[in-house]
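Q: Please design a sequence for this.
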């Protein structure tokens, strides 16, 4: 059935197309609990083919009446960074007389797809998405969003027609690594998230560039790039600390990796070790001043990132869907929280 004929579709239509019961469709659209994955895939495929979206506002909206809602999909509600980001979006939305709907993908592509479908079903006027790791383009296409404006925040996704706001990831990581090199460090570890997250790759690129310019090799044994949580980052840092020649400094590519690294370092120091590696953190975090080791932040304003994303969304509504996509970059800055003590590196761990 063509998408322009989707008006009036019901759950029963989707069920008939998918060859399942209406209850299975309802459960799938509500989150998929107790529904086998293969049945969920059939339901989503049928809904996509039919152009069906749940309209949660159907009872409260008159025809043609805007919903007044902006949908925001982020990757980790437990990270205070994204709380600040959402506040920034809300500040701009309020200026335009809009409210926000906030959803958490938990870095899960299927969950993100469901969130986006729910937002469309609730007739949001636009969407701001922090894409999940490895997110694909299909559910973010103009057709799937039925022409609604979309802004991608913090991360890039290939083949998506959308305005984008990102941090100066490459240059920020480059400056952070240069800061460690200038302080005399030569054995520098790297903790980051998966390469499928565009920020993870961009920050690693900046780190590698600084190392190459200094004539330093990026040692594979000093690099861990799979950490999405503080707990996994702590485990990775523990492994670095147990090396025969552990790094004298570590670059952490986001605040979750930094917190995990500092947790492991604090345990290391409590065990009687007389030193701990210096840390550069891409992102700020609470209580950074309590770091047990020298710490420098690659700082930026998460709330400003949210505000810019919202501004791009409302600008897009004014410019129309065919105006070329805009890419905005938010600057970052280096902030030393706890400086390197003079002569510290010569006595830090095994000799270089």
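A: Design:
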């Amino acid at each position: 059935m063509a998408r322009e004929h989707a008006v009036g579709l019901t759950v029963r239509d989707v069920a008939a197309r998918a060859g399942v019961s209406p209850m299975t469709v309802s459960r799938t659209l509500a989150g998929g609990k107790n529904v086998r994955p293969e049945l969920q895939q059939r339901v989503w495929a049928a809904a996509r083919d039919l152009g069906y979206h749940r309209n949660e506002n159907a009872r409260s909206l008159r025809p043609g009446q805007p919903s007044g809602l902006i949908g925001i999909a982020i990757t980790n509600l437990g990270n205070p960074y994204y709380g600040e980001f959402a506040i920034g979006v809300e500040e701009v939305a309020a200026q335009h007389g809009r409210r926000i709907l906030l959803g958490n993908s938990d870095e899960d592509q299927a969950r993100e797809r469901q969130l986006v479908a729910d937002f469309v079903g609730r007739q949001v006027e636009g969407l701001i998405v922090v894409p999940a790791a490895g997110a694909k383009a299909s559910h973010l296409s103009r057709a799937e969003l039925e022409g609604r404006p979309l802004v991608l925040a913090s991360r890039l996704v290939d083949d998506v027609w959308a305005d984008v706001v990102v941090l100066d990831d490459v240059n920020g990581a480059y400056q952070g690594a240069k800061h460690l090199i200038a302080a005399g460090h030569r054995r520098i570890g790297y903790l980051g998230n998966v390469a499928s997250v565009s920020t993870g790759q961009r920050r690693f690129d900046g780190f590698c560039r600084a190392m190459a310019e200094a004539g330093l090799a990026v040692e594979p044994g000093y690099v861990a790039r799979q950490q999405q949580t503080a707990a996994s980052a702590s485990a990775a840092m523990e492994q670095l600390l147990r090396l025969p020649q552990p790094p004298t400094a570590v670059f952490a590519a986001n605040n979750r990796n930094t917190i995990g690294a500092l947790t492991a370092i604090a345990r290391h120091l409590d065990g009687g070790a007389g030193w701990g590696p210096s840390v550069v953190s891409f992102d700020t975090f609470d209580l950074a001043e309590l770091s047990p080791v020298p710490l420098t932040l690659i700082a930026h304003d998460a709330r400003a990132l949210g505000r810019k994303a919202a501004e791009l969304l409302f600008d897009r509504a004014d410019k129309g869907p065919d105006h070329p996509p805009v890419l905005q970059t938010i600057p970052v800055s280096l902030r030393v929280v706890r400086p390197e003590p003079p002569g510290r590196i010569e006595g830090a761990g095994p000799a270089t």
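Q: Thanks. Anything notable?
A: Confidence is low (pLDDT under 50) at residues 1-5, 58-63. The first strand starts at residue 69 and ends at 74.
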